[in-house]
């Protein structure tokens, strides 16, 4: 089964544009908040330099393809409706979306780094929104989702542990539905220093610490700093990098990528997705509309 990657973030940040560019789908894109109403899935590719050039050999890819020295590895992308504050408590169908999001193996957190989406999700003047606060808001929703599962199942976990189930297995059991493995639980217990503490004695601080750590260990997340093409986005991008030093943050312009991929589909240009260059093939057929 291919790796499953969920696109999360607030509304209007460009998740569906990214999804369409990456999978060549035709899902609806609009400036209207909450246009995406239900999760959509499609296949795309993760792209990495192919090892065959380094080893100077011919390759015969079985489940992926090689194009001009780039290896295209199939992945499943899930486009999700925008998350809102208190989604974890069920606001805006939050439960449903968080449950789909957390079934992914990894997450792409798409933010509008230009700050042109306001707190209510409407497109506004560039610089009005705060992408740094947006990252923290969405993080909070995910952590609360994990915490809710933990706290809501205290009795069940406790009972399992008292019936001789190893704490690590009892905890993993609760989170299994969202793709958490025993190894994730083990790592989170170790990092938080809770491995030798009796679960019945976990106080709220312990639970929060564990939930936050488990969220990070079990769902590796990359921040996609989208709309980098807009003025002022570069400043926010720098602020973001300073604030989240341990997170990989990639600048992106999903809109530009989508235009390039559509032009490539029509045979107007030669373009390898994500590459820094493209070549115009049929200059005479290009007009302003293209
Ligand atoms: N300037 C700019 N606008 C973008 C970019 N990506 C998306 N948009 C616009 O942002 C709006 C919301 O996009 P959409 O993909 O529907 O956002 P979603 O709600 O997160 O799925 C649309 O008007 C898009 O054209 C980008 O990279 N740059
Ligand atoms: Mg959308």
Q: What small molecules accompany the polymer chains?
A: guanosine-5'-diphosphate, magnesium ion
Instruction: Report the C-alpha radius of gyration, rounded.
Output: 21 Å
Number of strands: 9
The low-confidence runs, each spanning 5 or more residues with pLDDT under 50, are none
Helix content: 25-40%
- Supply the number of helical segments: 10
Shape: globular
Strand percentage: 15-25%
Task: Tell me the span between the first and last alpha carbons.
Answer: 37 Å
Mean pLDDT: 91
The CATH architecture assignment of the largest domain turns out to be 3-Layer(aba) Sandwich
Structural class: alpha/beta
The biggest beta sheet, please?
Answer: 7 strands, mixed
Report on the structure:
The chain has 290 residues and is of the alpha/beta class. It has two domains: 3-129 and 220-285, Rossmann fold; 153-218. Helices cover 38% and strands 17% of the residues. It is built from ten helices and nine strands. It has helices spanning 15-23, 51-55, 94-101, 131-152, 154-162, 167-175, 182-192, 204-218, 233-243, 254-265; strands at 3-8, 40-49, 65-67, 70-79, 106-112, 221-226, 249-251, 269-270, 279-280. The strands form two sheets. Strands 1, 2, 3, 4, 5, 6 and 7 form a seven-stranded mixed sheet that branches. A two-stranded antiparallel sheet has the order 8-9. A hairpin with a 2-residue loop joins strand 3 (65-67) and strand 4. Helix 1 packs parallel to helix 10 (254-265), helix 4 (131-152) packs across helix 8 and helix 5 packs antiparallel against helix 6 (167-175). The longest helix has 22 residues, at 131-152. The protein is globular. 33% of the residues are buried. The mean pLDDT is 91. Magnesium ion binds next to helix 1.
């Amino acid at each position: 089964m291919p790796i499953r990657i969920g696109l999360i973030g607030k509304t209007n940040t460009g998740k569906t544009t990214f999804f369409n560019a990456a999978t060549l789908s035709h899902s609806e894109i609009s400036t209207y908040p909450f246009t995406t109403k239900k999760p959509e899935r499609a296949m795309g590719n993760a792209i990495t330099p192919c090892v065959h050039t380094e080893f100077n050999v011919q390759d015969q890819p079985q489940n992926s393809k090689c194009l001009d020295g780039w290896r295209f590895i199939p992945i499943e992308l899930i486009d999700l409706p925008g998350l809102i504050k208190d989604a974890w408590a069920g606001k805006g169908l939050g439960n449903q979306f968080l449950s789909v999001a957390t079934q992914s193996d990894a997450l792409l957190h798409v933010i509008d780094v230009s700050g042109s989406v306001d707190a209510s999700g409407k497109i506004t003047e560039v610089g009005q929104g705060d992408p740094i606060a947006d990252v923290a808001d969405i993080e909070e929703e995910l952590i609360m989702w994990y915490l809710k599962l933990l706290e809501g199942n205290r009795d069940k976990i406790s009972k399992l542990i008292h019936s001789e189930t190893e704490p690590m297995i009892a905890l993993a059991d609760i989170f299994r539905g969202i793709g958490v493995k025993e190894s994730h639980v083990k790592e989170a217990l170790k990092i938080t220093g809770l491995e030798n503490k009796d679960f019945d004695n976990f106080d709220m601080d312990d639970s929060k610490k564990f939930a936050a750590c488990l969220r990070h260990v079990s769902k590796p997340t990359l921040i996609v700093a989208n709309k980098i093409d807009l003025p002022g986005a570069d400043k926010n991008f720098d602020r973001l990098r300073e604030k989240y030093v341990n997170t990989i943050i990639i600048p992106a312009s999903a809109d530009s990528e989508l235009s390039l991929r559509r032009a490539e589909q029509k045979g107007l240009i030669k373009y390898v997705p994500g590459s820094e260059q493209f070549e115009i093939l049929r200059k005479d057929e290009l007009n302003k509309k293209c």
